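User: Predict F-box domain-containing protein's structure from this.
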Amino acid sequence: MADLIESGRHSFAAKRYSEASQFFSRAMKMCPCARGVKSGRPKCKCKMYERVAAREGSIYREARDHCRCVAGKKYSKCDNFHHFQALDFQATTFEAMGHFNQAMLYAEWMLELAPQLPDGYLRMGRIARLRCKYEYAWKIYTAGIEANKETAAGSSAKLQKLYDGQKLFNRFSFKRDPFCLPAELVAHVFSYLNYQEIIVCFRVCKPWQRALTSPLHGQLWRNMIFKESMHLFGKSMPPLHLLRKMLLWAGDGGARKIVITRSYKITQPALTLLLEASPRLEHLDIYMANLYADDQLTLPSNKKIWDRLRHVSVMGFFDRVPVDLPGGFPQMFLQNAAGTLEHLDITSIPLDWHNSVPSIPLFPKLKTLRMHGWKDYETPFPIYPLSVAFPRLEQLSFHLLSKLSLEPVTIWRKEWENIWPRLKVLMFHTGITRADDPRTYSTLRYLASLNSLQHIHLDLKYIRDTDQHPDIFGGNHDLLTDSGVFPQPQLQDLRSLRSERMWISPDRARTLLSNAVKNKKLTSFDIVFPWQKASGPSAAEASIRHLKGYDWLRGNPTIHTLGCQDFYFSFDPEDEDGRLLPQFLATFPNLRTLKIFSKHYGDTELTKVVLEILKVTHLKIISGFYFRYRVVLGVEEVARSKGTKIIERSEPPTWPISLEQ
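Assistant:
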């Protein structure tokens, strides 16, 4: 056998491949394992390595297990080195001739004879690569590593080649059928798709469709989220028969979360089906102003089946239609779920809630309430009925409300200690509030005096003349200061006080925040500098006095977010006054976020200030200012080198806020 193999090698070197193949074939037939059969030992026909690999099976186990055909029944295992060597050279010869299918047959035969040796895997992997079957090659190399998992990679040059080959095609390790993964991972993968994209996945194959609609993956259909898209405005909901199937695929209890944005056209039958087939609904977010149909939408009001509903967000034109009528605020639906409801978001405020005797139902467990918009900009919205209807409120946000009212004041005098004792978050955002509205300021001052508060965010937008608002925590505009209604705010747990365009004197801020600073609670604060009509020495002196008034806050280790607005210092960073603000910010060891803006500064001047601040701080985010494109690029380059991110527009406040217990 050795002589025949040597002759074959000489013929191969001379590129006489047919002659070389004959020598190698004669050598294999002379092996004792052929048991004298002239045609030689047959190759196993029952081992289908490529089919096993396609089904994510183990090539190594397929080679190792005893075959069930004639080759396995009549012939024993062969450990003759020359036989194995002849197979390798024969595969190499057919490979050189370009006959890759025949070369693969002999390479597989090598695997059959010696599944523990790396040679067969290397030969098969090489041929698979020549056939451009790269994923199959990766699986072959992986099988060879599996066969030698007890052997260190560096102990053999051939074994190291297996690792190198696997690494070369490692990208194919990610191309696996996701349904081979645990069910939890499958659910996580497909959770990134909406219902339309999941249904498209049905086209991959029948097993995928069966798996995606099986009870094992019912949670994929429990979030009925119909996302808004600029390309899908006016898009219809799925037909009723498909909705029924989706709700069946969700399993018992139907959907847990339903989100229907304004871009989707939904009919009343589809909405009713979604809700009534989902008694375990926990989250509902719906735009009820049906712009595409004559019939306006309404939510079921005669059933009490939603005993797990905790979050509801409804949008519509509720200030135009009485409650519970088509297109009106779904008050009875919410009242039926009041026993479990914890989060409510309303746009716009129902007309009936503004009557002299408001008809707001009781929501005993509600924790967060956000109210958007009120059409009557002249009539103040009453606060007291809200405190009665939502007694356990923890977070309250008013958005685009023009005026608020404390009426009747006599009740506040008697009940103020019992009103919203758990309130921790107060947000007020409006674009039209006037500084001469005493009722709104009195109401905000009362609410901001609740000692349970942890976060106060007052965004009063712009007004005429000064472009700033006076301090709501005291001043001549406060008509109720002398009435005994207001307690002195303690705010011992206050974490953040954000007050855009509302300046607070340093002395009042010190009194207001003293307990929070003492208790090491305060983390976020806005310093709004007093408004000056004209830039100049007087404006600079006012800003210097204002900043020095905050010396008591310098170096506070708990502060991580600051806002600085409408300051005016020297434009020259080399000037002592021009460095006051950067030096002040540098004293805060844990300052990570800065919101900065000043109407007194142009792009060039503000750029100098920001660059000087970057030199002396370790900020992660700077936001709130608007630069021309070229200026932004220059600032961003320096900021990037310092590990700071520049955000031109501040992100909207988080809602609801995650509260510390």
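The mean pLDDT is 83.
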